Amino acid sequence: DIVLTQSPDSLAVSLGERATINCKSSQSVLYSSNNKNYLAWYQQKPGQPPKLLVYWASTRESGVPDRFSGSGSGTDFTLTISSLQAEDVAVYYCQQYYSSPHTFGQGTKLEIK
Amino acid sequence: QVQLQESGPGLVKPSETLSLTCTVSGYSIRGGYYWGWIRQPPGKGLEWMGSIYHSGTTHYNPSLKSRVIISVDTSKNQFSLNLSSVTAADTAVYYCARDGYCSGGICYLAWFDPWGQGTLVTVSS
User: Fold this and answer.
1) pLDDT, tens digit, 9 for 90 and up, residues A30-58
2) Any idea what the Cα angle at residue B39 is, between residues B90 and A56, rounded to 5°?
3) What is the least distance, in Å, from the CA of A22 to any CA of chain B?
4) A104·B45 Cβ contact <8 A
């Protein structure tokens, strides 16, 4: 199985500041035939299901604010929130779909400083 | 828009079988896509359990493969999860979700969107 390790486990950022969450894969999730990275990011608020933010590592889902962006390739990926808003407090997960089984990172808890 | 809703017992006894159903509205399961189950123990992370295509083709997480069966009923636009021989470790919120994307008439396992609201299942005597 592909293991995804997120860092940090928790993060406190001031409102309006940048938040950066990392996801490292135990093996590359870049499919060479189409040059796509098989990685998604989710946001989960308390008592709610996860919400898809980004797929193909950097494609923002429709309706997701443009302050959220995904980047990276191969084994190292980043979710960046350019200007933190109060409603962004949540746990964030990465997920790979390069190979079965689908696996998720352990989650990063984002709070307001 | 596509909506999913989980249903089933909230309490299951140890060694018994956990059974849940996901009802899809706003989209016909026959139209394509895989449909999956993901669970989340209280205060913990996410675990994919398995996914099914409308044809009945299934993909399971090997960590659960011997205990999990996912089935589909296209006439009711539902798919179901059966998890046998449950223990306290199976206590979790169980989510159903659409799995993947379709391109050129072929559907692939990928990201999960949308998700149901989830249902808490507690394993206890």
Assistant:
1) 999 999 999 999 999 999 999 999 999 99
2) 150
3) 16
4) yes
